[in-house]
Design brief:
A hairpin with a 4-residue loop joins strand 3 and strand 4. The chain has a domain of 81 residues: 3-Layer(aba) Sandwich (Glutaredoxin), CATH 3.40.30. 28% of the residues lie in helices and 14% in strands. The termini are far apart. It is of the alpha+beta class. Helix 1 crosses helix 3.
């Protein structure tokens, strides 16, 4: 199996993790706001469209915004990205502020990374139940209650260091040789 078959993602920008290194390219291409003209759960979407949509479209000229009225359906935000990913958010009973926040979140993302499928070269029947290791795994829990900087922890150790022990062993070896 070659490395090219490990990840299946079409991409417009070859390495999206470096987006913004030279210049930033907004990955959000198109937003479709689907709503019902009469349904009560679409009230926040209708308020956003009436009061905030023009300002949002002016502040984001690279994003195309479509409105799609639908009968007897709940409100939905559908987003499409440059790399072909699509995201769908159910906006039932959202306020106009929540819809604005969701649109800003969609604008700053690179697409739906949760649907990304990685193929591994190995497989195990018994995965680990211990969880991932972190640098804090085996730290003493008494450090949770200490406020830093702490004088007790910053004191020099009372016992000899390994370097001092090696120097002393070297001196003893030289004396015994002569």
């Amino acid at each position: 199996m070659s490395n090219t078959s490990l990840v299946f993602t079409p991409s417009f920008i070859k390495n999206p993790s470096q987006n913004g290194l030279g210049r930033y390219v907004c990955q959000l291409q198109r937003v479709v706001l689907k709503f019902c003209k009469n349904n009560g759960s679409s009230r926040g979407m209708r308020e956003f469209i009436e009061e905030e949509l023009v300002d949002y479209a002016r502040s984001n000229p690279g994003v195309v915004v479509y409105l799609k009225p639908r009968r007897h359906r709940g409100p939905v935000i559908s987003a499409e990205y440059l790399n072909g990913d699509k995201q769908w958010i159910n906006c039932r009973n959202f306020t106009k502020v929540e819809i604005f926040k969701w649109l800003n979140l969609l604008k700053t993302q690179q697409g739906d990374t949760t649907g990304l499928r990685f193929r591994k070269l190995w497989h195990t029947e018994m995965p680990s139940i211990q969880g991932p290791w972190t640098p804090y795994t085996f730290r003493p829990s008494s450090l949770n209650l200490i406020s830093f900087p702490n004088e007790d922890l910053s004191k020099a150790p009372e016992e000899e260091s390994a370097t001092d022990k090696l120097i002393e062993l070297y001196k003893k070896q030289r004396i015994s040789e002569s």
